[in-house]
Design brief:
heterodimer; A: about 400 residues; alpha/beta; Rossmann fold; seven-stranded mixed beta sheet; 15 strands; B: about 90 residues; Alpha-Beta Plaits; two-stranded antiparallel sheet; two-stranded antiparallel ribbon
Chain lengths: ~400, ~90
């Protein structure tokens, strides 16, 4: 029976983690994810969740504790944001290279300076090269649903990579929505207990994280690279099984209007809803506009993206972050690299928006489509980088 | 030794057989090797306690020798020897 509960994004994630029956949580509070770890510590304290809650002294320690617990065989969760992710940075690579199955909720928040607690995707992008699987929620329901799927993906024996669920700081972490929740007893049908691979076992001692020099390091890295690529069909399988379980469908890319779009926007996170609303209105006026939003950011869904962008003349790639000194912001570089060897590819330009929680309004999106139409019509890109919603 | 390819390695770079580090002969890292002059040696065992590897082997009657399979040639033994009985000899 479907039950709808009003929850903000953080509460929804914490509730999903409780229902996922995690064994170990190690986390340090940081806005805007604090509610997640507060809720979880309450659940543990109240006896509603039988888990070890490790209140560490920093995010570096939080993720380190998670690595150990995950290797030991536990189902493990942590949450962080912004500077907290930055402090975890060293351990991000260790967690993925040791093939742990940690699930992390990342309440996306801008990096300092100046200090800002609101949404940018700086932290999500900072983790993009570290070998984690990254999912993006568009709304609170997705944050709840993706948390379950993240555990299934991470712990899948054909995957075995730590997984991040991104949810936009405040826009999702603190917005209350009606969320379709599962009953506790239904969960094991989709998410059975973790079956650890290479768990710590005194009867079968093994070494984790050994020294690995010029004679083997590159083989281990090649293996890891191929393994993350090979995880892709298994991620799709989890999405499909979740659809069978919940009736809610998840795909690497969500599209609207892409069957005949001449101009399109590519976007991550909560802004997708705003763009979709504008696209609907533009299409009512007969304009061939479309939008692609990515639920799966790493591994990057290259083949699907090439397919949906076929026939599009101009694409605006929207980044809620900036990559200083780079030839484009992060998603722009991803899309450009995906299309580089494709014949008849669309012209691309990069839109920087929403930094530090600046609202993305429908009129901004209309402005982006106006620019895209101009690029499509003239066949050239006058400005590769466009900032919107900024005072000039 | 036949090296494995990336397809043959256990995932996560774990080492499934315990204690196999003895198979890794770190002596190949060395450029200078310690050579002990047994006539000068006073059997004080300072080299034996100071060797970080430990690659100074202690034998009957406190005679010492070097295990060149694992000695990295750091020279601590030669430096600590009070009677200069250990000489670092270039292997290049």
């Amino acid at each position: 029976m479907a039950r709808i509960v009003g929850m903000n994004g953080d509460t929804a994630v914490a509730y999903a983690v409780k229902q996922a029956d995690v064994d170990v949580i190690a986390a340090y509070p940081i806005t805007p994810q604090t509610i997640i770890v507060e809720k979880l510590s309450e659940y543990v304290n109240n006896g509603e969740l039988n888990a070890a809650y490790v209140p560490v002294e920093s995010e570096h320690s939080a993720l380190s504790a998670c690595v150990g617990a995950s290797l030991a065989g536990a189902r493990v969760f942590t949450a962080t944001a912004s500077q907290g992710l930055a402090l975890m940075y060293e351990i991000l690579y260790i967690a993925s290279s040791l093939r742990t199955t940690i699930v992390m909720a990342l309440g996306n928040r801008a990096f300092s300076a100046p200090i800002n607690i609101h949404c940018s995707h700086d932290d999500a992008y900072a983790a993009r090269d570290a070998g984690w699987i990254e999912l993006f929620a568009e709304n609170v329901q997705e944050a709840y649903d993706l948390t379950f799927q993240a555990f299934r993906i991470a712990e899948d024996k054909n995957v075995l990579f730590p997984t991040i669920v991104n949810l936009d700081g405040f826009i999702l972490t603190h917005s209350v929505e009606g969320v379709n929740v599962f009953e506790d007893e239904e969960i094991p049908k989709f998410l059975p207990p973790k079956e650890p691979v290479n768990p710590i076992d005194p009867e079968k001692p093994i070494s984790y994280g050994p020294l690995d020099l010029f004679d083997y390091y590159i083989e281990h890295k090649k293996q890891q690279a191929e393994a993350l690529k090979a995880s892709y069909p298994h991620i799709l399988k989890v999405f499909e099984e979740f659809r069978e379980f919940s009736g809610r469908s998840y795909k690497p890319l969500k599209t609207l209007g892409m069957e005949d779009a001449e101009v399109a926007v590519i976007v991550l996170g909560s802004a997708a809803g705003t763009v979709r609303d504008v696209v609907r209105k533009l299409r009512e006026k007969g304009e061939k506009a479309g939008v692609v939003s990515l639920t799966l950011y790493r591994p990057f869904p290259q083949e699907e993206l090439v397919k949906v962008l076929k026939g599009v003349k101009a694409v605006a790639v929207m980044d809620r972050s900036y990559s200083y000194g780079s030839p484009g912001a992060q998603l722009f570089m991803d899309v450009a690299a995906t299309l580089i060897n494709v014949k008849d590819k669309p012209l691309l330009f990069n839109v920087i928006y929403g930094l530090g929680g600046r609202d993305l309004k429908p009129e901004h999106v209309v402005q982006v489509f106006e620019q895209a139409k101009k690029v499509a019509k003239e066949g050239e890109v006058p400005e590769k980088e466009v900032w919107i919603g900024v005072r000039e | 030794m036949k090296y494995k390819t990336w397809k043959d390695l256990p995932i996560g770079a774990v080492i499934p057989e315990p204690g196999n580090s003895v198979e890794y002969k770190t002596g190949t890292w060395r450029t200078f090797k310690p050579v002990i002059d047994q006539d000068k040696c006073i059997k004080c065992l300072l080299c034996w306690v100071s060797c970080p590897e430990p690659s100074i082997r202690r034998h009957e009657g406190d005679r010492v020798s070097v295990d060149y399979d694992f000695c990295k040639g750091c020279g601590i033994c030669a430096n600590i020897c009070p009677v200069k009985a250990i000489e670092m000899v270039s292997e290049l």
